[in-house]
TrEMBL record:
It comes from marine sediment metagenome. Homodimer. InterPro entries: Alpha/beta_knot_MTases, tRNA_m1G_MeTrfase_C_sf, tRNA_m1G_MeTrfase_TrmD, tRNA_m1G_MTases_N, tRNA_MeTrfase_TRMD/TRM10. This is tRNA (guanine-N(1)-)-methyltransferase. It is found in: Cytoplasm. GO terms for biological process: tRNA N1-guanine methylation.
Amino acid sequence: MRAGGIGPSVRMPLRADAVMALRIDILTLFVEMFDAFCSTSIVGRSVERDLVDVQRTNIRDFATDSYGTVDDAPFGGGVGMVMMYQPVCDAVAHVQSRHPTPGEVILLSPQGAPLKQATVEELAGKDRLILIAGHYEGFDERIRTLADREISIGDFVMSGGEIAAMALADAVIRLQPGALGKDESTHEESFSAGLLEYPHYTRPREIAGMSVPDVLLSGDHARIAAWRLEQAKLRTQQRRPDLWQQYKQQHSNQRDVAPDEGDTPPQEQDRE
């Protein structure tokens, strides 16, 4: 390993009375990309409050030559460069050795299983995660043997896995107890119940010829809850028919599953 070894930590020392935080190790060639991510908004506040321990490790520090080489041309020819096995293997072994709790190793890859909210909720309950963010044309196939699972954030191509690692880390961190202002906030968001989230409105009551639905001003919490559920169903049916079909299958024994017929209320038709 070259001088420098481990990348910068973004966590303050634990208080004596603190509960052990979720630890996330991110292995990347571009640790600086995570500076703002780890110091702002919900993630930054969670780090400051010792709710999560985010460590960044530079894979290049584990290159086996003095040039810091971590990629090479693919056997059989072809365009682009391929990340080499040994630096990634050594980086994983190094971060595993730095904490008594073994981490679940996740390779961010377009060939991985699509990231779903259920997966996020499962990972949020882990003690430690190790995220490998690749770059260049791809991984040496043998790197896949280092991972417990592969995860993809969508069917599109990016320059590297750093943004995918941020997306996964953000989704997991915000589910940690105390990360959000209200714990119930996560239970009403899109996908948490298998539906897209209902429409939101704030002041003013009327603007640009559009008004807040009267039910939201009624003070009747039961009616408001029923309206929000109905709107969530309508929005899911219209915008994500795949999710709607899954929801119907999961709730097939309930009498109030749908709307599948009828016109959508005007406020849902006109508003994005």
